[in-house]
Amino acid sequence: MHGWTGQILRVNLTDRTHRVETFDETFATTWIGGRGFAVKLLFDELAPGIDPLGPDNKLVVAVGPISGIPAPNTGKTIVAAKSPATGGYGDGNLGTRMTDQIRKAGYDALIVEGRAAAPVMLVIEDDTVSYLPADETWGKGTIDTNEWIYARYGKGAGVLNIGQAGEAMVRYATVRSLEGRSGGRPGMGAVMGSKLLKAIIVKGSKPIPQAFPAEMKVIGRDDLKEVRAWDKEQGWSVQGTDGVLPWCNEVSALPVHNFRGTHHPDAWQVDGERANAARVATYGCPNCTMRCGIAVLDDEGRESELDYEPVGLLGPNLDLYDLPQVAALNYLCDDYGLDTISAGNVLGFYADAIEQGAVQGDLRFGDAEGMKRVLGQIARREGVGDVLAEGTLRAARVFGNGSEAYAMQVKGLEISAYNCKFIPGMALAFGVSPIGAHHKESWIITYEVRQTERGSYGRDKAQKVVDLQRIRGGLFESIVTCRFPWVELGWGVENYPRYFNTITGRDWKLEDFWPISDRIYALIKLFWLREFPETDRTADYVPDVWFDPANADTDGPIEGLCLDRAKYDELLGHYYDIRGYDDRGVPTRATLEQLGLAAEAAQAEAYATLR
Hints:
The protein is of the alpha+beta class. The chain contains 25 helices and 17 strands. The longest helix has 22 residues, at 213-234. The chain is globular, with a radius of gyration of 22 Å. The chain starts with 6 loop residues before the first strand and ends in a 7-residue tail after the last helix.
């Protein structure tokens, strides 16, 4: 079987046993890899209702058939588990040397079960599995932990590790790797912490199975050169993702003051041009052709690697417009192993709740030192940090007093740095993201603002959300690779079936991946349904504050405007209809059978009715 090793390594931390399991060609072509493998394994193996932070949860690390192959931006790995943040399916991807090392060790996926008796590092070297006491690194941040591991195993090792936030089981703790790579924002770092697993280290020496390795070597070499040339010509990596900040500010899509504002005259002070001017180093993922990790010095002289999401949410969202101060908050999040998106939301929500009188506290918007202090409390679960470590939704339910209306989250996962107060399609993309609010699934915002009537709620927008999900959340998350060459440089999406076919020996067309993508999304929906049998369409709604005319902008391009709740509901209905879901947002029996999920449907129906 070309393209896959056909092997999954299963490790139980409780009794320190492991075994290698095999899968066949049918499994491989049904689920492809990455997210597909992860959701199928978790759906089959996790009993509904288990504690995401208990020993019965499982961490899946999975790659796809083109992962790690020298070709544009293929250095991505998926980490997945039942989410501590949402209680549903959770995953994320990150750039890491784990990608090629786990494949060279002979595995397409790793399943970690149980809970260690004491803090430990899991070490995988080809066929050998060993355990290293984590005494010297437990309690340390991800930066020192990475350096400790590199000193022992070399910088070529594949590493996933957690910081203090993961150890304390902060529900939005991430998994970290390399200089600034982070993934698994629905709490994958907390799952590692719950297992007392400080790090996973992998070193492999075997060849990655390919149908036509010589041909792929030439294609990959030529395409790496070409995409690098495109980036150099277009200059995208000069500002990286932070280059989108001025545009968001201009079109009133920037999160300001816990998303209450959409633009600010001082936003330019933390934009991509300023970050580029302050650049002291540049970082990227393995096989990256367009390195977007712009490192600047923070207000304490530490290197901090920035991109748009942390800048938007730790900057304007907190009324901070000093780049070194924003960089300091980003540095702390990275070192603690906190998701920057959720952390920025949580800080903004807490300051807002204090401002609204919902809770007593001394944190104020614009108070950089106060924000640093609270981040430390969150990472260590000290004082109010213990409540804020639960995320905005749970914190709002503790604070009460109407604060849930401005907790900027969907299904318990905080919203990325795009203010959709009057951007219906992007609001829908957040609402129907399969892991809770996240921009990576369907970044429709530029299409919507630039190419369509911004305030429309037509079926075309729902169709565009589905189309983008099929590419971004389906194709890219299963084969597994980075979306940036396609998104930012216009590198044709048809190149990816070409890589897939050369590696696997198949003859698939782009459209052959769409049923697989739809199957993955439908199974994720069933995962949620088993956990929340009473689910209805309100689970796919965005925060109330976006529907509130009292929160509408008082100036700028969307002055006086906000989302229309009834029209949003119609747009949601269009999405369900296109997907073949019922009015609750659950795949119908006919849809599931068409997607080859009859057995999974029968399992789900033990907990809820399918129509």
